[in-house]
Amino acid sequence: MYSASEIKDGRVSLTKWQKIIFADFDATVCNKDRPFPCIFGVNGYKKDMLRFSFYEELTAEALRDDLIEFCENYKSYGKQTSFVVFERPSPITSIEEYSKKFWRILEGLSKLDNTPWPADIPEKLDDPAWEFCFHGVPMFIVCNTPAHVNRLSRRSPGFMLTIQPRWVFDDLLDTDSKANSAFATVTKRLEPYDAVPKSPFLGKYGDINNREWLQYFLDDGDDKKIACPFHKMQRNNSQTCFQSDTTGVKQDEY
Question: Which of 146, 151, 133 is nearest to 202 (CA)?
Answer without folding.
Answer: 151
